[in-house]
Amino acid sequence: MARYLLRRLLQLIPVVIGITLITFLLLHLVPGDPARTLLGVRATPARVAALDREWGLDLPLPVQYVDYVGRLLQGNLGTSIFYEAPVGQLVASALPVTLGMLAMGTIFGIAMAVPLAVLAATHAGRPTDHVIRAVPLIGLGMPPFWVGFILLLVFALTLSLFPVGGWGDTLPQHLISLVLPALTIAAVMTPILVRSMRASLVEVLRSDFVTAARARGLSTWRVLFRHALRNTLIPAVSVLAVNLGYLLGGTVIIENVFGLPGVGNLLLSGIFERDFDVVQSVTLIYALLVVIINIAADLAYARLDPRVVLGQ
Amino acid sequence: MSVPLAVLTPVVAAERRRPGISLLHNKTLLAGIALLFVIVMMVVLAPVLAPADPNQQNLFNVLARPGPGHLLGTDDLGRDTWARLLYGGRVDLMIGVSAVIAPFILGSTLGLLAGYLGGWVDAVIMRVLEVVVAFPFYVLIIAVVFALGAGVSSIFIAITAVGWVSYCRIVRGEVLVAKRLGYVEAARAAGLSTPRILIRHLTPNVLTQALIYSMSDIVLTILAVVTLGFLGLGVQPPTAEWGAMLQAGFENILTDPILGTVPGIAVVITGLAFSLIGDGLAAEFGKP
Predict the structure, then answer these.
(1) Containing H/E element for B177?
(2) What is the tally of structural domains in chain A?
(3) Which of A210, B41, B160, B266 sees the fewest Cβ atoms within 10 Å?
(4) How far apart are CA A262 and CA B58, in angstroms?
C-alpha cells in the first residue's frame, strides 16, 4: 500500500506541474493587461507600470512561472484584493463548507440510489425497472442550479422546512443549511449512480455465488444486502471518482444558489471582482482536490474488493 | 486470409442491411428523434408560435400572470416569457450542438494519433489529458470564460479546451483495439501509408463510440451554456437564452415562480431528447 501510494504520488508530479502551468497561463489569457483591467481605463500609464512591476508582470514569462511555483511551494497562494486577506486563509475557511456539502451530498446520493437500483435490478425488465431507468435520462439533463432552485421553492419558500440560504453560526445550523444543497448534489449524483449500480446488480444477481447463497436458503434481503450490494459498491465508487470533476464543478453553482460561503462562491466572487489571485489559486485548489480524492477512491476500491491489487 | 470474395459479400451485405431495418424497431431512438423534431420545429417556428417580440419591454406589465395575451406571463422587464422561451431555445440548441463539433474533431484526432502511433506521442497527449481532467468541468469553463471575457466565442473556446478529453479517451481506446484487428494489419502489410490507414481505414471504424458519446456531450454542453448564462458569463443580454431567463426567475422566485421553472423544464426536455437518441444509438451500434 505504502509503495503504491509513493508511486502514485511520483506519477502525480507531471500532472501537478501541468496544473500549475494552466492556472499560471490563465492569468495571461486575460486580454490586455491585468493591471490595466484592474485599475480601469482612466489609470495613468505610470500607475499601471507600477502595478505590473509589483506583480512581476514586466518579467519574461518563464521567470514569472518559476516565481509563481516558488511562491506556491512556500504555501503562498497570493493575496485577495477584494477581501484584503491571504487567499490561503480564505480557502482554509471555505473548504470545510464545500467538503461538508460534498460529503453530505454523497451520503444522500447513495441513500437515494441504492433503493432505486435494488428495486430496478430485482424487477429487471418489468415496469418498475423501466420507470427507474428513465431517472438517469431525465436527471442527467437537469442543470444543478435549477434543481437547487426547485428545492428552494418547495422546501424553503413553500414548506418553510429549511433556511432559504446562508450558513448559520452554530454546528446544527451549519448542518441544516447543508441539507438542501446536499440534496441538490444528490439529485445530480443519483442518475449517474443508479445507472451503474443497476447494471452491476443485475449482473451480480445472476452470478453463481448469489445462486449458491439462495440455495443455502438465505432470504432475498440477506442475499441482497450482505452479498450483492457490496459488489455493486465497487463500480459505484469508480463511477463517482470518474464523475468527481463534474460533481465538484457543480458545487460551485450550487453554493452560489444557496449563498454558502464555500470555495465555489469564493471562486465566483473572485471572478466578478476580478480578483486574479483568488481565481488562480482556487482553480488550482479544485484541481488538486480532484487529484487527491481520486487517489482516495483508488484506496477505497482496494479496500472494498480484495481482488484489486494496487499498482497492477 | 484468402477468403473468396463471393463468400464474404452476402454476409457483409446482410450485416449492413440489418441496422437500417432495426432502427425502426428501436423505440428509444425513435422517441428521441421525435422529441427532438418537435423541439426543433418549435424553435424554428418561433415567430409563428409566439408572435410577441422576445425583446420588447413593457415596464407597465412586468411579472404578469399567464393569460390570453401572454401564454406564460411576462418577465421582470415585461417581456413575453413564451416568446423568450422559444427564441432562447434557438440560442441554446444552436450553441449546444455546434460547440461539440470542435472538441469532437480535436479529441478524436488526438485519440487517433495517440492510440495508433503510441510511444512519446501517446505519452505527451495522455499527460496533457490527465492535467485537463484534473480540473472540475465547470471550474475550468468558468475560469476560461472569465479570462477571455463573457460571450459566445469564449463559450466555444472554453468548451473545446475542456471537452476534447472525452473524445480523445474514447477514440484512443477504440484504436488500441482496432489496430490489432485483421483489416488494419492487412492495410499495413499492403504498405499503405500511416495517414492513409488512419484516415481511410481506422477513422470510419473507431468514430461510432465517439458519435454516441457526442449526444451526452450535447446535453452537458447545453447545461454548461445555461449555467454560464445563469451566472451572467454566457450569452449577453438582451438576447433571450434559457440560462439568463433562469437568472431572472431566480431573482423573482418569491413573486413569480413560473419564470424560473419553465426554462428549466425546457432544458430537461431537450436533454431527454438527446439522451434518448444517445441511448438508442448505443443500443444499435454500441458495445453489448
Answers:
(1) helix B152-178
(2) 2
(3) B41
(4) 38
Please tell me the distance from the alpha carbon of residue B181 to that of residue B111, in angstroms, as a whole number: 18
- Please report the residues numbered 24 through 83 in chain B whose beta carbons come closer than 8 angstroms to any beta carbon of chain A: none
Domain with residue A288: its CATH number is 1.10.3720.10
Look up the pTM and report it: 0.87
* Inter-chain residue contact A149 with B253, CB threshold 8 Å: yes
CA distance readout (Å), A155 to A120, A147, A149, A151: 28, 12, 10, 6
A81 within a domain of the structure (yes/no): no
Q: Which 135-174 residues of chain B touch chain A by CB within 8 A?
A: 135-144, 146-149
A309 assigned to some structural domain: no
Task: Look up the domain containing A22 and give its range.
Answer: 12-73
3-state helix, strand, coil in chain B (%, to 5): 75, 0, 25
Residues A121 and A35 in one domain: no
ipTM of the complex: 0.85
What's residue A263's pLDDT?
94
pLDDT, residue B5, reads 41
Q: A79 - beta bridge partners?
A: A86
Residue A132 and residue A223 in one domain = yes
Cβ–Cβ gap A257/B216 under 8 Å: no
Which residues of chain B are modeled with pLDDT < 50? 1-17, 288
Q: How high is the pLDDT of residue B44?
A: 93
Peptide bond into A163 cis (omega under 30): no
